[in-house]
Amino acid sequence: MTKRIPFGLIVVGAVVLPSLAVLGLWATRSPAPPTTTPTASTLAVLGPLEPAEFLTAYKRSRTSDFAADGQLTRNRGTEQTVVFVRQARDGPRAIDEVGAIAIIKDGETLRRCELIEGRVLCTDPEPAPTAEQETAAARALLAGPDPVYELYEPLPEDKAQATEGLAASSMCWTILQTDPTKSGLFGDETTLCFDLDTGAVASRVTRTGTATERFEATSLRSDVLPADLEPTGN
Length: 234
Fold this sequence. Notes:
Blueprint: E1 9-12, E2 15-18, H1 20-23, H2 40-44, H3 52-61, E3 66-76, E4 79-90, E5 93-98, E6 101-106, E7 109-116, E8 119-122, E9 126-127, H4 131-143, E10 149-152, H5 156-162, E11 170-177, E12 189-195, E13 201-207, E14 212-221
Antiparallel strand pairs: 1-2, 3-4, 3-14, 4-5, 5-6, 6-7, 7-8, 7-9, 10-11, 11-12, 12-13, 13-14
């Protein structure tokens, strides 16, 4: 018998991942440094940019085959939460895993799975969004009749932070919210970098009014093994 697991979802980079409210059970905590957010007037000097190239990279990140390990760090006030992340895709199969929780896609369906008392328990299959649907949702936020975000070339300090490590060889955009009364996939501001070789998200830094989240890939490869598509429960 399957068990239904209630947990929220957020978007990390270009992938859907479980809410960090759940992941706090597996996190380590330590003091976090304060962060600052560039102003809209500063970024306006550099843009905005047309979304076509970004949307091409975004769709590629939802269709290319790759295997990636990384970590997701969330700073809220003086607290820091760090969790392991695994992402992989091989044709119609894919996995987005954060800590002990994973979303597993198999063709047109997905399951939400969690490691509980040494066992991986999953929900019943449900319809999975297609890459076209996900890209269309991003396009509506950037280029619809009432856009919520604008695209900019990242400021030098943001690009330097976002392109450390594996993200050094990547394409990056800063996505800035233009209407604070509306919510969207990218918080108040996100700097998002896509790996040139695999198309995967190499790094993402998202800021909101109360927290900063950073995803960084620590390994990226185009060869996907069967084990990459199975939950580890880390």
